[in-house]
């Protein structure tokens, strides 16, 4: 059976400015499929190769696949749907499959707007996808599709979701097939070397209200550090990778496993051959301050910190569980360990003003990270914060949910003014860094890395790809009132998706009411028991310390 995976051709002018990123999802799926005996697997990276729809149609038709599979995050969903629409025309007998975080939670929306999709894989893909492919190969598809966990599909006019599949428990069975990628095309611009995105852990124990990863992976699991380093050694030895970024939301959560991972890299001499970066939380930097130089010895050179917002009020909204003043200290600790640090700010909430944007700039310059990034708040439609803010959401064109387009309109600003304020922060921060910091501070690797980052910014700015400025028509402050983000206003939430949300909201509200009622009932019973109880000698009941006031039930 011939399986074809396609990575949709979608760009936003965000993460792509640093280079071309290898789509790791296809390596992890392909590796699991090969273990199950599927050896006729093909891959088309339409994004990296900038393949037009016409050329993609020719390539799909020439391959004669039995299955065509795509993945999609929210901003790439329409491009992924289009890939499968094209497949329905040129390979009509192929089973058309979609996976990824957006389709997992928005399957009713996706199947409503793209009925040519045969099936959606919901959640962690390796085991579910393998079960699906075995059913197709054995001729049990579509007759037995209701028996396979973790799927969603149309059955006549009804949209069906089977029971959720278990998460992958045996992470040692995860054996990605990196040979499926054309490695010479995946280059990290700041270092001019091949780049990879391996995975140390899955999931996150934290529940930041703007994030979906903890919902998608469901439970937090860490792979054996030796298995991950085996993977990295293969990437370095056989595919020429010189830089990698751990795909984890926060790889330092499990301190013991992260330290073991670093030690394994050191024991194999890999830090001399490959450098790497991570995303993590400020609190973990505090916790590991005595280990930061050890992490640097293991090859860690770049840490992106989720400082998120300048105002403590915003941190509370996001449920980040950090304090503003902790950010500056964490940045200082990393720089003292010779680790480059990038501060991430989220802007564009309802309460954003020119003054709060200026505050983020002043904080960024005061904290002195090596790099700073201002991301537009993007309300993933399947996160708790979206449910809280949905009455303020005016744009349902998911192709613009990309961290660079202002989806939310602040009460006191127009979207063009918000974009201009963010660009002003970038201009000032990096102009000062370029003139007074990058060429003169530090030697060797640090200087080369930072100048490489500056080159990536300048390249994207010259090509007008940074933040999609060319498409929006932004050329500076004089154009802030004329920018056009080209929102497709015909895009709306599907009726089936709205019904699902309303049912979920009602269910959650009823559960909250039940919890409150039970708590009140227990409190009343406790008070009644206390009131009726007398000591054997007839004395009045006293609380600890002699008071007649009892502590409330918790």
Automatic annotation (TrEMBL):
<keyword id="KW-0411">Iron-sulfur</keyword>
<keyword id="KW-0408">Iron</keyword>
<feature type="domain" description="Radical SAM core">
    <location>
        <begin position="190"/>
        <end position="417"/>
    </location>
</feature>
<feature type="domain" description="B12-binding">
    <location>
        <begin position="9"/>
        <end position="143"/>
    </location>
</feature>
<keyword id="KW-0479">Metal-binding</keyword>
<dbReference type="Pfam" id="PF02310">
    <property type="entry name" value="B12-binding"/>
</dbReference>
<dbReference type="InterPro" id="IPR058240">
    <property type="entry name" value="rSAM_sf"/>
</dbReference>
<dbReference type="InterPro" id="IPR006158">
    <property type="entry name" value="Cobalamin-bd"/>
</dbReference>
<keyword id="KW-0949">S-adenosyl-L-methionine</keyword>
<dbReference type="InterPro" id="IPR051198">
    <property type="entry name" value="BchE-like"/>
</dbReference>
<protein>
    <submittedName>
        <fullName>Magnesium-protoporphyrin IX monomethyl ester anaerobic oxidative cyclase</fullName>
    </submittedName>
</protein>
<dbReference type="Pfam" id="PF04055">
    <property type="entry name" value="Radical_SAM"/>
</dbReference>
<dbReference type="InterPro" id="IPR006638">
    <property type="entry name" value="Elp3/MiaA/NifB-like_rSAM"/>
</dbReference>
<feature type="compositionally biased region" description="Basic and acidic residues">
    <location>
        <begin position="518"/>
        <end position="527"/>
    </location>
</feature>
<feature type="region of interest" description="Disordered">
    <location>
        <begin position="518"/>
        <end position="554"/>
    </location>
</feature>
<dbReference type="InterPro" id="IPR023404">
    <property type="entry name" value="rSAM_horseshoe"/>
</dbReference>
<dbReference type="InterPro" id="IPR034466">
    <property type="entry name" value="Methyltransferase_Class_B"/>
</dbReference>
<dbReference type="InterPro" id="IPR007197">
    <property type="entry name" value="rSAM"/>
</dbReference>
């Amino acid at each position: 059976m011939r399986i074809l995976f396609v990575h949709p051709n979608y760009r936003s002018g965000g993460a792509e400015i640093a280079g071309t990123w290898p789509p790791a999802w296809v390596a992890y799926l392909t590796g699991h499929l090969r273990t199950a005996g599927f050896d006729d697997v093909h891959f088309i990276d339409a994004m990296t190769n900038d393949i037009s729809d016409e050329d993609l149609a020719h390539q799909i038709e020439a391959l004669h696949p039995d299955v065509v599979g795509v993945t999609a995050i929210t901003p790439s969903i329409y491009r992924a749907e289009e890939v499968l629409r094209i497949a329905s025309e040129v390979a009509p007998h192929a089973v058309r499959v979609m996976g990824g975080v957006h389709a997992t939670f928005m399957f009713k929306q996706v199947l409503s707007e793209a009925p040519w999709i045969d099936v959606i894989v919901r959640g962690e893909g390796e085991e579910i996808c393998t079960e699906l492919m075995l059913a197709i190969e054995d001729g049990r598809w579509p007759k037995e599709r209701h028996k396979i966990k973790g799927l969603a599909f149309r059955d006549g006019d009804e949209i069906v979701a089977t029971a959720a599949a278990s998460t992958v428990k045996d992470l040692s069975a995860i054996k990605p097939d990196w040979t499926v990628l054309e490695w010479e095309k995946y280059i990290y611009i700041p270092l001019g070397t091949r780049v990879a995105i391996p995975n140390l852990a899955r999931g996150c124990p934290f529940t930041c209200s703007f994030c979906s990863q903890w919902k998608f992976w469901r439970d937090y699991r860490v792979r054996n550090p030796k298995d991950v380093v085996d993977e990295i050694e293969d990437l370095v030895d056989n595919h020429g990778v010189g830089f990698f970024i751990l795909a984890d939301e926060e790889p330092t959560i499990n301190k013991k496993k992260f330290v073991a991972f670093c030690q394994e890299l050191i024991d194999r001499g890999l830090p001399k051959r490959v450098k790497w970066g991570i995303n993590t939380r400020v609190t973990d930097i505090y916790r590991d301050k005595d280990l930061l130089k050890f992490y640097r010895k293991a090859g860690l050179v770049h840490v992106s910190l989720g400082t998120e917002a300048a105002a403590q009020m915003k941190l509370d909204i996001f449920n980040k569980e950090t304090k503003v003043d902790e950010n500056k200290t964490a940045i200082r600790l990393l720089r003292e360990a010779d680790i480059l640090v990038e501060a991430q700010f989220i802007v564009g909430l309802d309460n954003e003003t020119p003054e709060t944007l200026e505050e983020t700039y002043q904080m960024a310059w005061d904290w002195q990270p090596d790099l700073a990034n201002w991301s537009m708040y993007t309300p993933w439609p399947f996160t708790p914060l979206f449910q809280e803010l949905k009455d303020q959401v005016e744009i349902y064109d998911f192709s613009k949910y990309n961290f660079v387009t202002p989806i939310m309109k602040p009460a006191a600003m127009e979207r063009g003014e918000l974009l201009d304020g963010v660009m002003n922060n970038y201009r000032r921060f990096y102009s000062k860094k370029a003139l007074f910091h990058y060429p003169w501070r530090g030697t060797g690797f640090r200087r080369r890395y930072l100048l490489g980052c500056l080159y990536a910014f300048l390249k994207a700015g010259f090509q007008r790809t940074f933040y999609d400025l060319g498409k929006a028509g932004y050329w500076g402050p004089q154009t802030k009132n004329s920018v056009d983000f080209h929102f497709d206003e015909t895009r709306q939430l599907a009726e089936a998706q709205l019904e699902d949300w309303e049912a979920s909201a009602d269910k959650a509200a009823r559960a909250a009411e039940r919890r409150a009622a039970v708590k009140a009932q227990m409190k009343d019973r406790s008070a009644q028991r206390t009131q009726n109880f007398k000591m054997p000698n007839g004395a009045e009941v006293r609380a600890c310390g002699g008071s007649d006031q009892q502590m409330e039930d918790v």
